Hints:
- The chain is α/β, with parallel strands linked by helices.
- The chain has one domain (2-190): 3-Layer(aba) Sandwich (Rossmann fold).
- Helices cover 55% and strands 12% of the residues.
- The chain contains eight helices and five strands.
- It has helices spanning 13-24, 31-41, 53-73, 87-90, 95-98, 110-122, 141-158, 169-190; strands spanning 2-7, 28-30, 78-81, 101-108, 163-165.
- The protein has a five-stranded parallel beta sheet with strand order 2-3-1-4-5, with helices on both faces.
- Helix 6 (110-122) crosses helix 7 (141-158).
- The protein is globular.
- Residues 123-131 have low confidence and may be disordered.
- This is 2-phosphoglycerate kinase.
- GO terms for molecular function: kinase activity.
- InterPro entries: P-loop_NTPase.
- Keywords: Kinase, Transferase.
- It comes from Lederbergia citrisecunda.
Amino acid sequence: MIILISGNGQSGKTFMAQNLLEKYKVPYLSIDHLKMGIYRSNKNCGFTPLDSNELIGDKLWPIIREIIKTNIENNQNLIIEGCYILPHYIKEFEKSYSEKIISVFLVFSAQYIKENFESKILKHRNVIEDRGELDESDYNITEIIKEHNEYRRRCIEAGFKYFEIDKNYEEEITKVYDYIENQKRIIESNSK
């Protein structure tokens, strides 16, 4: 079983992956770590850490896709999280793989971003990893709303369910954990 967690930056992906690791005892891979490992080992790798999610995703997806397939072929479980898992990539898997993948796409509503940007989104950005100092671009609420709207559009175009946090993160994120648990049960029952 593979659990993929994706969404824009600071949407709680790493926190969710850590919680799932603790609950299911399944390791997780942060694509940010993969990105930085590739970039630091080869500055001519075709991207920089500041490039767009799409450009970096297009470079990393072939590696991530094959990691997923290898884990499924070896009947191993893994959680992979990162903003570089774009919804349309998931359509590349044959059914024998896709039926063992739980995809979670997280977005925030414009209302949630406006009401909680500093008090929750920025405040919790370092809850699992140290993301360094904030710069002024982190405060552009209009741009962040645009990014979440674009990510939502990508999910809809690819035909994938997404989870939108609209009012209360703590309450609404429980629906995501419930979804993962239900999908996990389905995968396990189909494997018997």
